[in-house]
Amino acid sequence: MKFFVDTANLDQIREAHDLGVLDGVTTNPSLMAKEGITGKDKILKHYVDICEIVDGDVSAEVISTDFEGMVKEGEMLASLHKNIVVKVPMIKDGVKALKYFSDNGIRTNCTLIFSAGQALLAAKAGANYVSPFMGRIDDISWDGVDLIDQIVEIYANYDFETEVLAASIRSPLHIVKCAEIGADVVTCPLKSIMGLLNHPLTDNGLAKFLADYEKGNA
Ligand code: G3P
Questions:
Q1: Using only C-alpha atoms, what is the Rg of the chain?
Q2: With CB atoms 3.0 to 4.6 Å apart as the test, which of 29, 75, 148, 167 could cross-link to 131 if both were Cys?
Q3: What sections of 24-91 are H helices per DSSP?
Q4: Catalytic sites, residue numbers
Q5: CA pair distance 22, 5, nearest whole angstrom
Q6: Nearest alpha-carbon partner for 190 in 5, 53, 3
Q7: Can you give the pLDDT at residue 166?
Q8: Ligand 1: which atom is nearest the Cα of residue 170?
């Protein structure tokens, strides 16, 4: 299972990278705005800065919503760095753009996936990744884990190569549930990855080991 961080914060990306478990990064316009990255030049430079930290896929999202605009923007984003994966929204022109990019050797991540049907369409169009937003599904009292499970099953039925990138992860438990059902990738806030570390019995056990060592070696 690949671990991506879902942030445009360079310190958090470096921290995840230094932990040694980082396989990639996803960003979106909201995450860029949260870091105060605005204006085309600053945004493009920021993508390159991220790519220089991470030896893995970095999703950069198009802003255009028409086919020609998405193609032009996606080609420009892909030319920035070999790690860039063009993130395309699940809309009609987005599906056409996914097919175009797939035919032209540009890797893609289809975002804003909320149903298995959308994930099927994205895979048919040749997306490299689909991003179902499990937290936002949970927010409306549906089951995000069920959605990931359905997509994993459909892709396995037909040997689609599209990878299931579980997004909108809100907790360490989401990560574990995704691992149980075979999601290819999770993209999460750093705190959800760090949350996997925690267990009180580990802390208690380590304290006891160290105390016993001190007793014997004082
Ligand atoms: O990758 C998608 C993600 O950024 C959305 O997360 O927490 O805003 O639903 P959230």
A1: 19
A2: 167
A3: 29-34, 40-53, 67-80
A4: 87
A5: 7
A6: 5
A7: 98
A8: 7
Give, using CA atoms, the residue closest to atom 3 of ligand 1.
168
Q: Whose alpha carbon is nearest atom 1 of ligand 1? A: 167
| Ligand 1 pocket mutation pick from 133, 171, 193 by most atoms within 8 angstroms of CB | 133
Q: What is the CATH number of domain 2-216?
A: 3.20.20.70
Q: Is 59 in the pocket of ligand 1 (CB under 6 A)?
A: no
Residue 122 tokens read as: 């994205």
- Please report, for the chain, the start and end positions of each structural domain, with discontinuous segments joined by +: 2-216
Please identify which residue in the block is written with the tokens 């999460």.
Answer: 188
Are 136 and 112 contacting, i.e. CB atoms less than 8 angstroms apart? Answer: no
How far apart are the C-alpha atoms of 214 and 218, rounded to whole Å? 5
Residue 154 burial by CB count (10 A; 0-12/13-18/19+): exposed, middle or buried?
middle
**DSSP conformation class of 168:** S
Token pair belonging to 140:
């409306």
Picking from 112, 146, 162, 150, the residue whose alpha carbon sits closest to that of residue 132 is 112
pLDDT digits (tens, 9 = 90+) for 18-39: 999 999 999 999 999 999 999 9
Q: What pLDDT does 218 receive? A: 82
What is the structure's pLDDT at 208? Answer: 98
Positions in the chain whose pLDDT score sits under 50: none
How many angstroms separate the CA atoms of 137 and 144, rounded? Answer: 5
CB 101 within 8 A of CB 121: no
